[in-house]
């Protein structure tokens, strides 16, 4: 058997859950989609109402809500109450990981009012947002001003707080880094109820660097100042097909945005946006975009494609046409380009509603798409949830750019999931070592895509049912994820924790660096108030006993280190 050949697997006996999943589209069409559309519309009305308010009014409401949170936090009795969690229901989170820690005893703090764009400062080029502002909301405010966040995650429902405390990426990340790299300041309520503003160069600079990937376990984020960039009305998008083996597809992707002469910071040579979709082991389409003015887009001979209309073909299928008709260029309205994957949830929509990509469905019911991920989770029982964990993969592998080909071969061999999404991002060399960090000495290797200040990484997005599952063969999803995590640890990769994780605590801290994070946990009183990031990300139910034991273990460790004599 060759290295790329998938192992032979026996056939799997079907159970009742298989049939339920196959016909789940009935619930989605008649229950989830109508409710989703209603919620989207009500949220839109709320956003419009917020935009009508003056800056002074929004700031006054924000200050009052901050006072309520501080008051609530100070009501907590550490000896009686559980660890602090937000009051958001477990199924509302967009990520696929079960929010099982909320099933245990905990002390709830309501942050649901923090959903306003507080200010767009055109002079400082900063947007000040509350944590529940989502990407659809912020682009609706900024794009008409010819401004946008430097990194705009593709799905409308992704929130500022989730992208900061967790993980966020977009096709512009090869220039600006991850979403959290574009943040200028955090406003955080600490465990003792104090409100602080953390920047990269003030007294809370350690906290500033520790917040990303911490999953809200250092304090409660109540606002963030995020970098804005000037944009134009359209995205000039070039679709270029690539054919070859997986290593050749990977090299074609790298060449689409990383100059071989190493001039990675030259805007003339590097596009504004990059993504590649691998459709099968031998075919891919590389997409590169540059902002374009309305005047350029409307010149005679140029094609404008408004991909945001509900009846339009799903974006990933539209891009796939380049494999047949060859390289082509078109102009897409900027905001519609940002949210190109929303309507079909990348390609997950095909699994949820197998016929939703058909013309008749798009014209008749496409205006209700997409179903809200939170409602999909709310309408599935534990048996269905466990089924998806075993028979379905939603994982992002953040790997060094030069290892993308190896990652693609690993995914093909172990999972056979297609399409695969590739999106590059800078991983900056910082003055302190954060939870995720570039390979030591990367700047000496002078590899394609790297600079002296940042190593180029790639998000290898693996989202779909694995080949063995589609063929009715045995597939152990938990074991596949464990192998994926081991591969990433061995190859200096990182796994975003929105997904289901099988990591043990030891392996979690082999993948991520604990130094700065644990230092800030103790310094800012998070130990004993907020659960640790591993415990929050851990798979499975968290009982009250587990909460107490984990809480006590961290407290004892913190006190022991504080009490140690100084030499």
From TrEMBL:
GO terms for molecular function: Delta24-sterol reductase activity; FAD binding. Residues 45-231 form the FAD-binding PCMH-type domain. This is Delta(24)-sterol reductase. PANTHER family: 24-DEHYDROCHOLESTEROL REDUCTASE (PTHR10801), DELTA(24)-STEROL REDUCTASE (PTHR10801:SF0). It is a single-pass membrane protein. GO terms for cellular component: cytoplasm; membrane. The chain crosses the membrane at residues 21-42. It comes from the Eukaryota. It comes from Lupinus luteus. Its EC number is 1.3.1.72. GO terms for biological process: steroid metabolic process. It holds the Pfam family FAD_binding_4.
């Amino acid at each position: 058997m060759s290295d790329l050949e998938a192992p032979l697997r026996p056939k799997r006996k079907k159970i009742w859950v298989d049939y339920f999943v196959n016909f789940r589209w009935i619930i989605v069409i008649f229950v989830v989609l109508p409710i989703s559309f209603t919620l989207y519309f009500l949220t839109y009305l709320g956003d419009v109402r917020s935009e009508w308010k003056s800056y002074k009014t929004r700031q006054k409401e924000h200050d009052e809500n901050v006072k309520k949170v501080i008051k609530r936090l100070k009501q907590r009795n550490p000896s009686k109450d559980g660890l602090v969690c937000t009051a958001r229901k477990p199924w509302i989170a967009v990520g696929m990981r079960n929010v099982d820690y909320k099933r245990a005893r905990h002390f709830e703090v309501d942050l649901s009012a923090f959903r306003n764009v507080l200010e767009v400062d055109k002079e400082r080029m900063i947007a000040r947002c509350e944590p529940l502002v989502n990407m659809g909301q912020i682009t609706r405010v900024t794009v008409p001003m010819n401004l946008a966040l430097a990194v705009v995650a593709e799905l409308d429902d992704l929130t500022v707080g989730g992208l900061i405390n967790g993980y966020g990426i977009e096709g512009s990340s090869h220039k600006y880094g991850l979403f959290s790299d574009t943040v200028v300041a955090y406003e955080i309520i600490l465990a003792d109820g104090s409100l602080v503003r953390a920047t990269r160069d003030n007294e809370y600079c350690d906290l500033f660097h520790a917040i990303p990937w911490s999953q809200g376990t250092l304090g409660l984020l109540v606002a963030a100042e995020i970098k804005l960039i000037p944009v134009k009305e359209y995205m000039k998008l070039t679709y270029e097909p690539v054919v070859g083996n997986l290593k050749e597809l990977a090299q074609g992707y790298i060449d689409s945005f990383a100059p071989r002469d190493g001039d990675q910071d030259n805007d003339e040579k590097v596009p504004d946006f990059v993504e590649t979709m691998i459709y099968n082991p031998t075919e891919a389409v590389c997409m590169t975009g540059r902002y374009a003015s309305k005047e350029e887009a409307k010149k005679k001979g140029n094609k404008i494609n408004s991909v945001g209309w509900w009846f339009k073909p799903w974006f990933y299928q539209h891009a796939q046409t380049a494999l047949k008709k060859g390289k082509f260029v078109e102009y897409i309205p900027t905001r519609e380009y940002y949210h190109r994957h929303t309507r079909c949830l990348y390609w997950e929509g095909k699994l949820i509603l197998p016929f939703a990509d058909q013309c008749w469905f798009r014209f008749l019911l496409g205006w209700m798409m997409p179903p809200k991920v939170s409602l999909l989770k709310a309408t599935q029982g534990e048996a269905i949830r466990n089924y998806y964990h075993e028979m379905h993969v939603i994982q992002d592998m953040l790997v060094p750019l030069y290892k993308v080909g190896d990652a693609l071969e690993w995914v093909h061999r172990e999972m056979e999931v297609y399409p695969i999404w590739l999106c590059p991002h800078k991983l900056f060399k910082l003055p302190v070592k954060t939870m995720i960090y570039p390979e030591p000495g990367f700047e000496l290797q002078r590899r394609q895509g790297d600079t002296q200040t940042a190593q180029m990484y790639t998000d290898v997005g693996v989202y779909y049912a694995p080949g063995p599952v589609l063929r009715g063969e045995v597939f152990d999803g938990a074991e596949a994820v464990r192998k994926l995590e081991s591969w990433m640890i061995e190859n200096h990769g990182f796994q975003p924790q929105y997904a289901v994780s099988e990591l043990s605590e030891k392996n979690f801290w082999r993948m991520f660096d604990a130094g700065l994070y644990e230092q800030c946990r103790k310094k800012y009183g998070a130990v004993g108030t907020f659960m640790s990031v591993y415990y929050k990300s851990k798979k499975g139910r968290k009982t009250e006993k587990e909460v107490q034991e984990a809480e006590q273990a961290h407290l004892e460790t913190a006190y022991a280190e504080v009490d140690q004599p100084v030499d």
